[in-house]
C-alpha cells in the first residue's frame, strides 16, 4: 500500500506533537512537512524527531494549500488545534476537498457536522480518540438503555485525577454521569471528586511521577444499600499514547471509507460524518 | 396485591435458608411452611427466624403436593437445592403445574429447558441470581460482539477470591474469558488466578473477616502494550444478599408474566423459559 499523506495540524502544540511522532514512525503514513498553526504562534518551523515542519499561519494557508495538495495528493488532515479553530478549519478542509480527522474538542459541533454533511468530503469527528474509553462508554450507554434502574438503591462515587492546570471537571466523567442516572442512581456532575494536587496524586493515587503532568484517571464505585456488593470500573491513562493510537486507527478507517466511496463512484455524493464508534465497529 | 405463595426448596441448605429469610420478611410474599429437601437430610423440620418449615423428602412429596397446592393456590416454587436434583425437580414442577425460579446450578440445562418448553408452565432459569453481575456480563457480551479486537495487544489478568472449600474456578470468571478473547486478548481459563487462603484474603484482599466464609470477588485488569493505559473492572460480593434480591425480583417477574399469560387466555399455551436478562429488562 502506498503511504497515506497526512497533514497534522496543531503543531507546536503538545498533543499534536506527540501524535506527529507516532504517525511519523508508522510506515503506513507519510507525514507531510506542513502544519497549520495559530496566528499567535511566533515560530515558523517546528522540529520533531529530526523532522522539520513549516508552520502555516491562518493568513498563509489559502495561498499555499493548492501547491501542497498537488505535491501530496489524496491527503488527509488530522486536526489537533484549538477549540476556536474547529469550525474555521472544518470549512477550510471542505473548501479544498481534504477529508479530515477532527481530534480537537470544542467549537460549534453541530455546525461542524453540517459543514461536512453539505460537502462532498467525509470526516471522522471525535471528541475522544481513546478507542477503549469510547468502547467502555458505549458499554455503559448500552446498559443504561437496556437495563434501566439496574443499580437502583446503590450509591455512586466518581473520582478523577488530571494534571495540575486542568481547570474543568473531566468531560468523560461528566458524560458517564447520565448513564449512571439512567441506571437508577441520583448523581450530579458536581458530585464528581476532582484531584489536581500532584502530591496527593503521587502519594495516594500512586500515579507515576513522570505522568503527573499528563494523565487522566477515572474510578467509578457502586456500592449496594447494605454494602455487601461493590462494583468498580476504572480507566487510568498516562500520557497521550492511547490518543495517538486511536488517531492512527481513525485515519486508516477514513482512508478505507474514501476508497470505498471512490469505488462506488456515487455521483453527487454528500460528505459523511463518522464517529469513533464507527471506527471501533470497523464497518 | 394478595401476597404470592412461595415454596422455597432446598432447606436446610445455607443459600436456601438465607433467601428464605429475605422472602419471609417481604410483604409481597407468603412463604409456605414446606420445603423440598434431599433424601439424605435427617431433620424433618427447619426453623428460620421463628418460622417452622416441614422438610419434604423426595418419596413424600408426590403424596403431599396436591394438598399443598389446594391450601396455597397459584404457588411459585423457588429452587436452591442441589445440582443432582435440578432435572428431577423441573419435571416435578411441570407435572403439578407449578411455575418455578431455578436458582440451582448444574444438571442437564438443555433438558431442563426442554422440560419447560414442552409443558404449559413458565420458569425463570438462571445460573446467577445477582442481577448486577448478569447486567455487567451482558455489557461485556455487547462489547465483544460489537467491537471485536477493541483490546487487541492488551494483556489481561483475572483474579478471583472465594471462600475456602470452593474447589473449582469461578464460573462467572470463566464465562468472562470468552468475551475478552473476542475483544482481542488470548487468555485461557487456566490463566485465572484463584485465591482460597483466608489469611491472604484478609491481609492482601482486605475481605472483611465475617465474609471469609462466603464471598465472591473478581477483578479483571487490562493493560496496554506500553503500560500507559489500564482498565480495571471488579465486582466484589460479600454474603448472599445480592442473590436473595435477585431471586425476589425473578419471582415477582415470573408472577407478572403468569398473570399476563392468564389475561391473554392463550389456548394450548406452551411454557416459556425466561432468563435473568429478561428479568433485568423487565419486559
Name the CATH homologous superfamily of the largest domain in chain A.
NAD(P)-binding Rossmann-like Domain
Question: From N to C, what is the helix and strand string of chain A?
Answer: EHEEEEHEHEHEHEHEHEEHEH
CATH topology of the largest domain in chain A: Rossmann fold
Oligomerization status of the protein chains = homodimer
**Structural class by secondary-structure content of chain A:** alpha/beta
Structure summary, number of beta strands of chain A: 13
Please state how the strands of the largest beta sheet of chain A are arranged side by side: 2-1-6-7-8-13
Instruction: Tell me the major beta sheet of chain A.
Output: 6 strands, parallel
The number of domains of chain A: 2
Per CATH, the class of the largest domain in chain A reads: Alpha Beta
Helix content of chain A: 25-40%
Average pLDDT confidence of chain A is 94
Q: What best-fitting shape of chain A do the alpha-carbon axes yield?
A: globular
From the N-terminal CA to the C-terminal CA of chain A, the straight-line distance is: 20 Å
Spatial extent as radius of gyration of chain A: 21 Å
Interface with most residues: A-B, 35 and 35 residues
Structure report:
- 2 copies of one chain form a homodimer.
- Chain A has 283 residues and is of the alpha/beta class.
- Chain A folds into 2 domains: 4-125 and 241-282, Rossmann fold, CATH 3.40.50.720; 131-238, Dihydrodipicolinate Reductase, domain 2.
- In chain A, 38% of the residues lie in helices and 23% in strands.
- In chain A, the strands form 3 sheets. Chain A has a 6-stranded parallel beta sheet with strand order 2-1-6-7-8-13, with helices on both faces. Chain A has a 4-stranded mixed beta sheet with strand order 10-9-11-12.
- The longest helix of chain A is centred in the C-terminal third of the chain and has 24 residues, at 241-264.
Amino acid at each position: 500500500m502506498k503511504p497515506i499523506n497526512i497533514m497534522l495540524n496543531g503543531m507546536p502544540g503538545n498533543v499534536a506533537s506527540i501524535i506527529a511522532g507516532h504517525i511519523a514512525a508508522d510506515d503506513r503514513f507519510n507525514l507531510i512537512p506542513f502544519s497549520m498553526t495559530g496566528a499567535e504562534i511566533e515560530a515558523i518551523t517546528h522540529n520533531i524527531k529530526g523532522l522539520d515542519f513549516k508552520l502555516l499561519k491562518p493568513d498563509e494557508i489559502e495561498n499555499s494549500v493548492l501547491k501542497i495538495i498537488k505535491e501530496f495528493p489524496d491527503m488527509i488532515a488530522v486536526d489537533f488545534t484549538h477549540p476556536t479553530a474547529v469550525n474555521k478549519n472544518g470549512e477550510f478542509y471542505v473548501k479544498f476537498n481534504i477529508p479530515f480527522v477532527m481530534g480537537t474538542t470544542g467549537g460549534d459541533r453541530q455546525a461542524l457536522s453540517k459543514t461536512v454533511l453539505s460537502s462532498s468530503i467525509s470526516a471522522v469527528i471525535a471528541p475522544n480518540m481513546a478507542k477503549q474509553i469510547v468502547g467502555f462508554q458505549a458499554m455503559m450507554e448500552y446498559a443504561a438503555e437496556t437495563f434501566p434502574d439496574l443499580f437502583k438503591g446503590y450509591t455512586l462515587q466518581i473520582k478523577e485525577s488530571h494534571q495540575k492546570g486542568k481547570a474543568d471537571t473531566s468531560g468523560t466523567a461528566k458524560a458517564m454521569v447520565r448513564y449512571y442516572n439512567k441506571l437508577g442512581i441520583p448523581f450530579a456532575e458536581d458530585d464528581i471528586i476532582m484531584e489536581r494536587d500532584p502530591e496527593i496524586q503521587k502519594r495516594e493515587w500512586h500515579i507515576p511521577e513522570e505522568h503527573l503532568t499528563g494523565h487522566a484517571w477515572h474510578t467509578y464505585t457502586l456500592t449496594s444499600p447494605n454494602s455487601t456488593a461493590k462494583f468498580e470500573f476504572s480507566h487510568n491513562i498516562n500520557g497521550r499514547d492511547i490518543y495517538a493510537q486511536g488517531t492512527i486507527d481513525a485515519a486508516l478507517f477514513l482512508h478505507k471509507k474514501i476508497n470505498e466511496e471512490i469505488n462506488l463512484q456515487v455521483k453527487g455524493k454528500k460528505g459523511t460524518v463518522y464517529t469513533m464508534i464507527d471506527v471501533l465497529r470497523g464497518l
